[in-house]
Amino acid sequence: MLSSQRFDKIAENFATSEVHRSSPTMEALHETLGPQTGSAICDVACGAGHLALSFAGERPARLVGVDPAPNMLESFRRLAAERGAPVETVEAHAEELPFPDASFDLVVSRLAPHHFRDIPRAVAEMARLLRPGGRLAVIDLEGHDEPEIDALNHALEILHDPTHRRSYTLAEWTRFLLDAGLNVPVARGSQSESRTGVPVKRWCEIASSGAEAEEAIRRRLAEAPAPHREALGIRQDGDEYLIPVRTCMVIGVKPLTGSR
């Protein structure tokens, strides 16, 4: 099943997901970026639009959500209407964004790029949309530099969501942005989308992973060396495991004309 088809089926899960609605990393992003009053903002692979809508109270000039799943865009429009926030929605993939060059002051993408078919192309497209001095901010699942730990992380993510492609390391993300012609003043690893950790049961409910996948995740965690779980920020609480949803945050800035 294509990623967009899968997410069309579980759009409501994301609309009500506490993990997607807010997080410490989202708060840190706002603190780092500052107010976006008057900015044109595009949320790529926006899902239910939680990140985009977190800017709505700052009175942006334009707020656009792009996603390949129509039901995700419908959820975004519904949540925006509930808040009285004017938004635009566009059905498209990150690798082919249907906007002119230099259309936005800020482009963001959260908890989505690990699904992208072609990360360098998607980052190049997002960078293309920036005006000089504009910023690209990405929050996404983080890979691990240690191969055995990264293999555990990847196995868990595939069980959780079979359309997952890869979690990239902070160094890889930094290189993606640099290769797209952006300066990278902010690159933070080992972030978490949940302060308390998400119980495996709830983590699987959000993604509609299914009972078999949930049980397989529990077995894989039980068999994994404790230091490997700890390196991924996964804690055990009685019979349950708590998933931090480990991420990294990178911010790239498009150079002003004639500078880099």
Description:
This protein has 260 residues and is an alpha/beta fold. It has one domain: 3-Layer(aba) Sandwich (Rossmann fold), CATH 3.40.50. It has twelve helices and ten strands. The strands form two sheets. The chain has a seven-stranded mixed beta sheet with strand order 3-2-1-4-5-10-6, with helices on both faces. Helix 8 packs antiparallel against helix 11. The mean pLDDT is 94.
List the helices and strands and how they pair.
Blueprint: H1 3-9, H2 11-15, H3 18-21, H4 24-33, E1 40-44, H5 50-53, E2 62-67, H6 70-83, E3 88-91, E4 104-110, H7 119-128, E5 130-141, H8 147-160, H9 170-179, E6 183-192, E7 198-199, H10 200-207, H11 211-223, H12 226-231, E8 235-237, E9 240-243, E10 246-253
Parallel strand pairs: 1-2, 1-4, 2-3, 4-5
Antiparallel strand pairs: 5-10, 6-10, 7-9, 8-9
Keywords for this structure?
260 residues; 7-stranded mixed beta sheet; alpha/beta; 40% helix; Rossmann fold; 23% strand; single chain; 12 helices
